[in-house]
Amino acid sequence: MLLSGLKVWTSRSLWIHRLHEGINGGGKARYSSCSPKVCIVGGGPAGFYTAQHLIKARPDVTVDIYERLPVPFGLVRFGVAPDHPEVKNVINTFTQTARHERCSFYGNVNVGKDLSVTELQEAYHAVVLSYGAEGNRRMGVPGEDLSGVYSAKDFVGWYNGLPSCRELGPDLSCETAVILGQGNVALDVARVLLSPIDLLKKTDITQPALEVLEESRVRRVLIVGRRGPTQIAGTVKEVREMVNLPNTRPDMLASDFEGVKEALKDLPSPGNEHERLEKASRVWGLRFYRSPVEILADPERSSRTAGIRLAVNKLEGSGEGARAVLTGEMEDVSCGLIISSIGYKSLSIDPSVPFDSHRAIVPNNMGRIQEAPGLYCSGWLKTGPTGVIATTLNNSFDTARSVLEDMDSGTLNTSAAKPGSQSINALLEKRGVKPVTFSEWEKIDSEEVRRGAAIGKPREKLLTVEEMLQVAGK
Ligand code: FAD
Ligand code: NAP
């Protein structure tokens, strides 16, 4: 009986078996009579993993990914440190997904500006928002906007070629830099600031960033956390990379480690390498139990920073949940560069989408956006800005499962045909927006690889949207 309802389509090589009005074990209509069209907003890991799971799980779903930039892969391209090329291998999986016949990529489409979420909902059965966390948490202390103070988000974007950070021009003419926050982003930034230039030259760091780093006079980097050594947010692997960084030596305060030596036995130590350490000309240190209170202005150039005032904390409670409590004591540290690395933050891109401004996420239940049927979310927008790519994979697969469950149960109505990209492309054309397809991105990719090869790098990224569009043939 099931087989009598089975239709086989063959359009190019794409098709598939599809149950027309098949009955599943629960007696419910399993697949509807028109093929479900899903659109995803954001072409980072969450977008690609959500698409991958949807396409794999159901042979009749088509997925369109809309990405703000002409280039895909989100933080894999613009966040992951240039000296971690192995992390970027996930791009191969994303590329396979993008090349799948039931997946299309449309770069250079800024949802919330070029298109509204409502327009996408009219064109698709389901819309999954996966646009990440593009804002940054502010410290909320006086002097935060002085020159010499940068967010890690912008600093990372600058050395990784994010077009909006191209003009950052960080001033690295001072000797001491303070990084606030002790997560993996802070450790990435510290490593990039202190790495020997010959190591960075072989990476895909942008050439302008390389030139600034080559002239850098920063010799000492302090990575400051508000809690203690057992609460450090960065992972052992990243701390070990700092310990092993050529031409650098750690400089810690013994008092910070009192009473926690046992808990720290797994942390890497530099071992018996006195000679290497003695010769090191650059220094890095973790500083604990300190919170930023004020960025201090240079008395001679009041628009610039010359230091930071830190409150000294003590811990209340223990373990991961321990809280930093002010002791009332203060400490000033002289420095000419301050990088705030206290976390990213999602932003609202469309007033029609519920948004929890306090937690800076879209309120959701297993990826189903609350009080918004047909709207889903995945990735950092769903969870907040924590977790590695593997975490993002899991939460994106969960969201895809929610979409599929809703299709199967009929909660998501897929019975009426939807126009999908056809109507959206017509809207974009009317608005003068030129989407970049995945094969057009591949032209940009080839050009970047070609430019990189000429100077011994894996790629030299194009730094402006205009140049990307030109190379894509737009
Ligand atoms: P994103 O990667 O930010 O992707 C979101 C995408 O949405 C972007 O492409 C963006 O351009 C697009 N977008 C934004 N707004 C719109 C809009 N209005 N319309 C259309 N598209 C839009 N994890 C690891 O496992 N290893 C690492 O080494 C590592 N390094 C990291 C380094 C840094 C600096 C950071 C910040 C994170 C790092 N991570 C790393 C974590 C990893 O990058 C995240 O887990 C992952 O990128 C989150 O994926 P996402 O798709 O939710 O967000
Ligand atoms: P994170 O891991 O959440 O670290 C944020 C840091 O900022 C913590 O030390 C936190 O301290 C501190 N902080 C937060 N608010 C603060 C405040 N108001 N004042 C002072 N300090 C404050 O975030 P992240 O470093 O941005 O990284 C984001 C995610 O990407 C993480 O999951 C990370 O692992 C991942 N990532 C991975 C890699 C990698 O695998 N190599 C590289 C980069 C990023 P508390 O702990 O006290 O809150």
UniProtKB/TrEMBL annotation:
The answer to whether the entry has keyword S-adenosyl-L-methionine is no
What main location does UniProt list?
Answer: mitochondrion
List ligand-binding residues for FAD: A46, E67, L75, V111, W380, G387, V388, I389
From the UniProt record, list the reaction(s) this protein catalyses: 2 reduced [adrenodoxin] + NADP(+) + H(+) = 2 oxidized [adrenodoxin] + NADPH
Q: Is Cell inner membrane one of the keywords UniProt gives this record? A: no
Q: What is the annotated localization of this protein? A: Mitochondrion
Summarize where NADP(+) binds, as residue positions.
Answer: Q182, G183, N184, V185, R226, R227, E238, G387
Q: What's a Pfam family this protein contains? A: Pyr_redox_2
- Pathway connected to this protein: Steroid metabolism; cholesterol metabolism
Listed A to Z, the keywords are: FAD, Flavoprotein, Mitochondrion, NADP, Oxidoreductase
**Record-level GO cellular component terms:** mitochondrion
InterPro entries of this UniProt entry?
Answer: FAD/NAD-bd_sf, FAD/NAD-binding_dom, Ferredox_Rdtase, Ferredox_Rdtase_adrenod
Q: Which residues form the FAD/NAD(P)-binding domain?
A: 37-193
Supply the enzyme class, top level: oxidoreductase
Q: What is its EC number?
A: 1.18.1.6
Q: Which cofactor does it need?
A: FAD
Entry's PANTHER family? GLUTAMATE SYNTHASE 1 [NADH], CHLOROPLASTIC-LIKE (PTHR48467:SF1)
Q: Which family does it belong to?
A: Belongs to the ferredoxin--NADP reductase type 1 family.
Protein name, please? NADPH:adrenodoxin oxidoreductase, mitochondrial
Q: Which organism is the protein's source?
A: Dissostichus eleginoides
Taxonomic classification: Eukaryota, Metazoa, Chordata, Craniata, Vertebrata
